[in-house]
Write a structure and sequence with these properties.
Layout (H helix, E strand, L loop, with lengths): L4 E5 L2 E5 L5 H7 L23 E4 L2 E4 L10 E3 L3 H17 L14 H8 L16 E2 L5 E4 L8 H9 L5 E4 L6 E4 L15 H4 L6 E3 L20 H28 L1
Parallel strand pairs: 1-5
Antiparallel strand pairs: 1-2, 3-4, 3-5, 6-7, 7-10, 8-9
């Protein structure tokens, strides 16, 4: 078995095994790297570029870039924070996002990321494109106004559900999520139990009949900012290590 190695994220030593990406190693170490298209159940896609870091001075996507021994990674620099803010602001300006009226509000990763990055309103002009809403399915709705083209639904349908319900069509500003039917979502084999239904980070694919059932204050990001689950896991690990080290030191003193 290959031995693990050490590299550095913002000066913090991080252990990694051969083949681990920067994001996977950071996640295991309790270091949160912002992302939108990445999901632990899916193969990395590298599409949103929100997870962009600098490794040895070169920009790369943390979700697809393998960690390398002794490499130096920048994650939380001023320049990278501004880069991520611009990307998120562009996603808001390019789509039609009305957070106050969205069923995913409070549990939306895009909204939560904007809050964490300190975005009150996008600095870019909104495009206000006319986009299709498909409510033909009995249990599931697609609102393409909110889609950020992260490909989570595409990958989940293909790799987790084995169905290929979703895919991309069009190029550039005309790119959108399509379904594998000449008609509408109701004519596909999508089931409400499919993983692709719940893996969307925004409110583009939602279940019907359950919107706004979770009260304000109990939604996913009402109590703590996005990424705090990763960081709190690191705090718990450090606390456990300190407790273990303290206990070992006490044992040594007793023996002396």
């Amino acid at each position: 078995m290959s031995e693990s190695f050490t590299f550095y994220i913002d000066g913090v030593p991080v252990e990694a095994a051969p083949g681990m990406t920067i994001l996977d190693a950071a996640q295991a170490a309790g270091i949160w790297i912002p992302r939108l298209c990445w999901h632990e159940e899916l193969e990395p896609f590298g599409g949103c570029r929100v997870c962009t870091v600098k490794m040895n001075g070169r920009s790369c996507a943390a979700c697809t870039q393998p960690a390398e021994p002794e490499s130096v990674v920048e994650n939380d620099s001023v320049a990278l924070r501004e880069w991520r803010k611009a990307l998120v602001e562009l996603l808001f300006a390019e789509g039609n996002h009305f957070c106050m009226a969205c069923e995913k509000s409070g549990s939306c990763e895009l909204q939560a990321l904007a809050y964490r990055l300190g975005i009150a309103a996008p600095r870019f002009e909104h495009r206000w494109q006319a986009r299709e809403v498909d409510a033909s399915h009995a249990d599931v709705l697609i609102d393409r106004n909110r889609c950020i083209l992260c490909a989570r639904c595409v990958r989940a349908s293909r790799d987790l559900d084995g169905k290929n319900v979703f895919g991309f069509t069009g190029r550039g500003p005309e790119r959108r999520v399509a379904v594998n039917s000449d008609a509408r979502l109701r004519d596909t084999d999508l089931d409400v139990s499919d993983r692709a239904v719940d893996i969307c980070p925004v409110g583009a694919i939602i279940r019907k009949g359950v919107g706004f059932t979770v009260p304000i204050g109990a939604r996913r990001y009402d109590g703590a900012p996005i990424g705090s689950d990763v960081e709190s896991a690191n705090d718990e690990l450090e606390s456990a290590n300190e407790h273990t080290e303290g206990g070992a030191a006490a044992t040594v003193r007793q023996e002396e």
